[in-house]
Design brief:
By secondary structure, the chain is mostly beta strands. It has a single domain, classed as Electron Transport, Fmn-binding Protein, Chain A (Pnp Oxidase, Chain A, Roll), CATH 2.30.110. 15% of the residues lie in helices and 40% in strands. The protein contains 3 helices and 12 strands, in the order H-E-E-E-E-E-H-E-H-E-E-E-E-E-E. A 7-stranded antiparallel sheet has the order 3-2-6-9-10-5-4. It has a 3-stranded antiparallel sheet with strand order 1-11-12, with no helix packed on it. Strand 9 and strand 10 form a beta hairpin.
Length: 168
């Protein structure tokens, strides 16, 4: 194997600034509970991606120390809720450190028992296929068990530190 030269030091601020120029869709990943909490867990994710058609696999990156990351792994399953452009408040709530992010939110349960948030564009219900360490984040790969479009609307996007939508 050829020796790979060490990478130059990259300033974290520059890294975020440049990558912020890449628009991402906004999702909320949910599961049925943080260990010992007795309530559902959810987190806003902008790093969701499809991985494979056969088998059907999707994935997202989450901070290695995040509580919701531990809840997803402990549960062994999760549901990806695809947000619409009128759901910025829901995105902010699920990105917060609130004790009960689901307080006052009427949700239903997916086949795995993960929350399906109201009025989302679509859902992708998964069981964990693999968890891969990747620096200060982990890639959680899910095997898709069920998925559906829930309504037609414009997606919520994130670009250069702000929300937006697709105008086409």
């Amino acid at each position: 194997m050829t020796d790979i030269p060490s990478a130059p030091e990259i300033d974290p601020g520059d890294f975020r600034h440049v990558l912020g120029h890449f628009p991402t869709g906004v999702t909320v990943v949910t599961t049925d509970g943080e260990p010992g909490a007795g309530r559902p867990a959810g987190v806003t994710i902008g790093s969701f991606t499809s991985i494979s058609l056969d088998p059907p696999l999707v994935g997202f990156y989450i901070g290695s120390g995040a509580g919701t990351r531990d809840a997803v792994e402990a549960a062994g399953h999760f549901c990806v809720n695809i947000l619409a452009d009128d759901q910025q408040d829901l995105s902010n709530r699920m990105a917060s450190k609130a004790d009960d992010k689901f307080e006052g939110i009427g949700y239903e349960l997916s086949e795995t028992g993960s929350p399906i948030l109201p009025d989302v564009l679509g859902i992708i219900d998964c069981r964990i296929h693999e968890v891969i360490e990747a620096g200060d984040h982990d890639l959680i790969i899910g095997r898709v068990l069920n998925l559906s479009v829930r309504r037609e609307a414009r997606p919520l996007l994130f670009f250069k530190g702000q929300y937006g939508s697709f105008s086409g």
